[in-house]
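User: Predict the structure for this protein chain, please.
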Amino acid sequence: MQKILGKQQSNGSWIYPNTKATLRSPTNYNQYQTYKTTAELVEFYGLNKKHDAIRKAAGYLFSFQTEEGEFRGIYGNQYSPNYSASITEFLIKAGYDGAKIEKSLYWLLEMRQNDGGWAIPLRTRNRELGALKEEQTIEPDRSKPFSHLITGI
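Assistant: Here is the predicted structure, written as structure tokens:
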């Protein structure tokens, strides 16, 4: 665990180890790595918001939370119901509650497909992953069926 903690950056993030990653910006990959590492520290090592590393990581992750409640960035400017849900889950497990967590949960409820599950909106519009680089957020087509993978996460 000390090896993991020693790699945390001063802003609370962990750096994504694959320097050849190019689909998203390094910030987005670092957000992803921070989410993964936070999940590991919470789930496997039992750390919570009383630990400085978790508080720093939570601050970093919350810096990506939109006014609506989603954690934006891992998919660029596109919606991310799967990562938003999972980030929220591990922050709750770490002991976080309150307005920011509630905002995320309400956002998740608002983002459901008409059939009750979740999907990545760009996929409901038959867009490829290259759309992650687009500045304009792609709105979901809620009439399309939910994704088992996204809902499962």
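The helical segments are 2-6, 26-43, 52-62, 81-93, 99-110, 121-124, 148-152.
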